[in-house]
Amino acid sequence: MSLPPFKRIVLKLSGDILKGSAEGGIDFNVVRRIAGEIGEIHGTGVDVAVVVGGGNLIRGAEAEVGGIDRITADNMGMLTTVINAMALQNALEKLNIQTRVMSAIIIAELVEPFIRRRALRHLEKKRVVIFAAGTGNPFFTTDTAAALRAEQIGADIILKGTKVDGVYDSDPKLFANAVKYDEVDFMEIIKRGLRVMDLTAITFCRDYNIPVLVFNILEHGNLSRIINGHSIGTLVKEIKQ
């Protein structure tokens, strides 16, 4: 059996992905399916870390519009990512995959605090690690958390699971002639304002040379195809001229 192209990955999942068809909550069928796909790539020997968002339950920016101050709203959003992480952990453990949730805010009764050396040890022991609560700070997205954690654990790549099949030069829903990139440079993303990750996250990935692969995680088997070396989605990286 050939070795997978990546030794260690960070899978970024938005809360919207986990929402599925549920109205304002968690679609547990989607959670179980994603857990199954994580289990498949974990079984190939790849170290798997996951960063989950919380937009299926609450978004800090939206709560702020509703009258809650931004810091409180973002703290609420971080708590929702812990709920999502625990749901994914449960689904993985039902598949007999040892999993740890590590939170950037301390909730010792439920999940472990994020400690970098401990996270690395879990990965060395072939446990799936789910990072929750973003960076632990308001005003920063879970995209930024994914970039930060990827650097901290020495991940080869961030796999950003989305509802679309890659990055386009314009919105394919609005423009029929929109062109999909197979590869695109970080600076092109920044200059054109393409919505891959927020600016802080994409700049961090550029500065620390962390490639980001944007792909449709809702298409069954895509995660395994990527790990098996197939060309899926759009790779965002530094392209030397």
Shape: globular
Taken in chain order, the helices and strands follow as: EHHEHHEEHEHEEHHEHE
Q: In percent terms, what proportion of residues is strand?
A: 15-25%
Q: State the end-to-end distance.
A: 35 Å
CATH topology: Carbamate kinase
- Structural category is alpha/beta
Q: Report the total helices.
A: 9
Looking across the biggest beta sheet, what order are the strands in?
4-3-5-2-1-6-8-9-7
For the record, what CATH class applies? Alpha Beta
Mean pLDDT: 92
Low-confidence stretches: none
Helix content: 25-40%
CATH superfamily: Acetylglutamate kinase-like
Q: Mind describing the biggest β-sheet?
A: 9 strands, mixed
Number of strands: 9
CATH architect. name: 3-Layer(aba) Sandwich
Counting structural domains, the number is 1
The whole-angstrom Rg is 17 Å
Looking at this protein, list some descriptive labels.
9 strands, 39% helix, Carbamate kinase, 241 residues, alpha/beta, nine-stranded mixed beta sheet, single chain, 9 helices
Describe it for me?
The protein has a single domain, classed as Acetylglutamate kinase-like (Carbamate kinase), CATH 3.40.1160. With 241 residues, it is α/β, with parallel strands linked by helices. The longest helix has 24 residues. The N and C termini lie far apart (35 Å). It contains nine helices and nine strands. The protein has a nine-stranded mixed beta sheet with strand order 4-3-5-2-1-6-8-9-7, with helices on both faces. The radius of gyration is 17 Å and the shape is globular. α6 runs parallel beside α8 and α7 packs antiparallel against α8. The relative contact order is 0.16.
